[in-house]
């Protein structure tokens, strides 16, 4: 959030500068550079990975010693058109981990809940997208242990963030 606020602050300062000196800026090289920066800054802010928070929590979850489950683990090399169903599969399996954590009172329950909250918020934005018939259902994937599941989940998210 701090990065986002800094970007907004910079954009606002550039806006004020442009508003007061727009015509003068067009006549000078420095003015053109400032106009370029105004156009470029919003694009860099939008380029921030929407899964960054989920990725951070997954990294913390990797070290958990008290979660012992087998989970359907989607392939990390699925077609691009199957990315959304793959993500949904991982988040469905996170619900299984939440239940496991409630039963065993595991130390990383809050990280799991954060992943679900942040992930579901991101997936809500894509609710209307269609899924290809060639994409697998979650239950069609191989069951793997918790460590392999988290490693695959991290790879899929990293792939999304590129």
UniProtKB/TrEMBL annotation:
PANTHER family attached to this UniProt entry: INTERLEUKIN-15, INTERLEUKIN-15-RELATED
InterPro entries: 4_helix_cytokine-like_core (IPR009079), IL-15 (IPR020439), IL-15/IL-21_fam (IPR003443), IL-15_avian (IPR020451)
Family according to the record: Belongs to the IL-15/IL-21 family.
Location (main, coarse): secreted
Keyword Signal found: yes
UniProt key word Ion transport: no
Subcellular location per the Swiss-Prot or TrEMBL entry: Secreted
A GO term for molecular function: cytokine activity
Protein name: Interleukin
Keywords for the protein's UniProt record, in alphabetical order: Cytokine, Disulfide bond, Secreted, Signal
GO biological process: immune response; neutrophil activation; positive regulation of cytokine production; positive regulation of immune response; positive regulation of T cell proliferation
One cellular-component annotation, GO: extracellular space
């Amino acid at each position: 959030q701090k990065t986002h606020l800094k970007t907004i602050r910079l954009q606002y300062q550039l806006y004020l500068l442009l508003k007061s000196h727009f015509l003068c800026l067009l006549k000078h090289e420095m003015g053109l550079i400032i106009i370029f920066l105004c156009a470029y800054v919003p694009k860099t802010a939008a380029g921030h990975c929407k899964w960054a928070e989920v990725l951070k929590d997954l990294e913390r979850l990797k070290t958990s010693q008290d979660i012992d489950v087998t989970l359907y683990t989607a392939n990390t090399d699925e077609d691009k058109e199957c990315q959304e169903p793959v993500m949904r599969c991982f988040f469905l399996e996170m619900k299984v981990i939440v239940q496991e954590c409630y039963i065993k009172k595991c130390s990383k329950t809050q990280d799991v809940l954060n992943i679900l909250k942040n992930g579901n918020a991101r997936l809500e934005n894509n609710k209307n997208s269609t899924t290809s018939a060639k994409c697998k259902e979650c239950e069609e994937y191989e069951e793997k242990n918790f460590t392999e599941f988290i490693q695959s989940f991290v790879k899929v998210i990293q792939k999304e963030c590129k």
